[in-house]
Amino acid sequence: MSIDQAISALATKVHELKPIIETEEATKTAFIIPFISNVLGYDVTDPREVIPEYTADIGKKKGEKVDFAIKSGDDFRFLIECKKIGEPLDLNHATQLVRYFNVTDTEFAILTNGEVYQFYAQLDAVNRMDEKPFMTLDLSSVDARIFPHLEMCTKTQFDSETIAASAEELKYVSELRKSIAAELKEPSTEWVKLLAARVTSRRMTAANLDLFTRLAATAASQYLRDETNRRLRSAQDLEEPTTAVATPADSAEEKVSEVTASEDGVVTTEEERQAHSIIRAICCSDVPATDITMRDAKTYCAILFQDNNRKPIARLLFDRKVPRIVLFDENKNETPHDLDSVEGIYSHAEHLRSRVRSLVAG
Predict the structure, then answer these.
(1) What does pTM read for this prediction?
(2) The Type I restriction enzyme R protein N-terminal domain covers which part of the protein (predicted)?
(3) N or C end of the chain: which has fewer CB within 10 A?
(4) pLDDT for residue 83
(5) Cα separation of 343 and 281, whole Å?
(6) What pLDDT, in 10s, does the model give residues 35-75?
(7) CATH top class, domain 3-174
């Protein structure tokens, strides 16, 4: 079962059973244990992997427990604190999770009520659990964009360095999106002054500040409406999908340049964004994630190193019945691979890392 299928099945179960779940223990049994087993892929019957009611003795605090500890050998992978379905998730009411996280070698923690799963790391300070989650899975409103990142947390794909790199990007992009959304909805004084300084030399008196606050709100509203209309027009004008024909290795770079030069009708799909995120996560152990860039075109989507069309990493051919990824070796020879799903890219992780290393080496 793929991770999206597992999440879909669990979301359906939560929707059906939520009204009759009345206790924390019932929440664990109905939702959280299936999440650990079916989504993350750990054997909940093996106490070497999943330890329920893990005792956390810290200093004078004796007998404190976290609901689940997930381990691999002697290493902790996750500590999980559970609440009853419907209860708000607040770290102030999960102090034992925070304390134990801060004194062990655990790098990741999950706070959940069975419907919402908040993933925490230690991005802000070493051995100190962050106050805000880097990723949230809400089964009442599933965001498929986090699936590649959630896949990294599974038993078979787990790699702490890759998760940490992905977590940093997820966390700060999420916070920036919230900040941008807040500014677009209700522009702050600082933002209004910043924008006004770019379009006028007027002094920001109280009257001018009121004026530009109103103008900034109007401009933001018009921009969002225009952007929505543009995307709708692009979708309507999009040509019928065509199957890309593989080109010889010596013309790979020219093809990337040629197709991306014409942007009319180019629409980047959610699957392409997910694939880009997966390839970033795979390669960020060797290069900064920002060095793995994407250029979309009508017939394929190019994944490039440092946005250089002479340094292709992979080519995504998703406008076909069976999605395909084309990989490059150090001599720029192309090898196509059909994919059962976007997550199938993980099976080519070593090839992708090898390609990036060859590009770094020059």
Answers:
(1) 0.56
(2) 34-121
(3) C
(4) 92
(5) 12
(6) 999 999 999 999 999 999 887 655 555 666 788 999 888 88
(7) alpha beta
